[in-house]
Amino acid sequence: MTDAVRTQGLFKRYGPQVAVAGVDLVVPAGSFAGLVGPNGAGKTTTLSMITGLLRPDGGRAEVDGLDVWRDQVQVKARIGVLPEGLRLFERLSGRELLHYSGRLRGIPKADVLGRAEDLLQVMDLAGAADKLVVDYSTGMRKKIGLAAALLHNPSVLFLDEPFEGVDPVSANTLTEVLQRFTASGSTVIFSSHVMDLVERLCDWVSVMNGGHIVAQGPLEKVRGDRSLNDTFLALVGGQRDGGDTGLTWLGAKNLGAKDLGAGDLGSRNLPGGDLGAGDGEPK
Ligand SMILES: Nc1ncnc2c1ncn2[C@@H]1O[C@H](COP(=O)(O)OP(=O)(O)OP(=O)(O)O)[C@@H](O)[C@H]1O
């Protein structure tokens, strides 16, 4: 089976800063794939290049075997994208936004109307369908953005931190929609910092650090007999011994009077404000 996504030596620099340093990303078709990595690892830059939003300086990217930059129209017809910092048409209502997105995609009007109502129902947005998008909450914006990205029934869905700022109920709704989507053979690739979520949802994971892929494959293989979080910390060098952080001053105001010296205490703004008898001892 063709891979849903395959990149070779994908490269991008911003001035002296190499953001993506030759990435070979692979996502098999039908996967629920997670792209994880610390802040600044290059996840957004990589996804932007694969979805045709940002031109690479080097390398190539394919979606369903089609070259993203050579076969732009075919690729765009096959993908749905929920980018980071999504900009929406704020002065349309949620329903109008879906109608507009569907018509832009060239879907016949009758189909657009039906699909839009289905998506509004599933996303629990039917009650807010006539509200302007500018008045939507963060979670509602994510949901209407996802609905717009799904309307044309894409083959591959790219989501940049789709669960950020989303409450647990809405996150559950998004999860159910995405699981239904992949169960029908379509592919989801999403970036996230929430390891528990990636571990729970994904069957494929790619780990980025410093503009490189440092691990990639089926979830069980990548994490081995550890949790994904432990594997991630080991891979990106995040394991600390819990020792000297150089922040000895942090929290010092919570020390008792004996530790601080009586003269220190009066001028400090202690949590709770009142130590009681004035002897500095907790009651
Ligand atoms: N438009 C830009 N101009 C200059 N540098 C940029 C730009 N966009 C990204 N970078 C740099 O490229 C590197 C990768 O950024 P990117 O946003 O792809 O990382 P990320 O993995 O998505 O991070 P995060 O998890 O924080 O969203 C970072 O060092 C970032 O500062």
Automatic annotation (TrEMBL):
Gene Ontology CC terms, in alphabetical order: plasma membrane
Main location: membrane
Family matches, as InterPro entries: AAA+_ATPase (IPR003593), ABC_transporter-like_ATP-bd (IPR003439), ABC_transporter_ATP-binding (IPR050763), P-loop_NTPase (IPR027417)
Record Pfam families: ABC_tran
GO MF assignments: ATP binding; ATP hydrolysis activity
ABC transporter domain residues: 5-235
Membrane topology: Peripheral membrane protein
Protein name, per record: ABC transporter ATP-binding protein
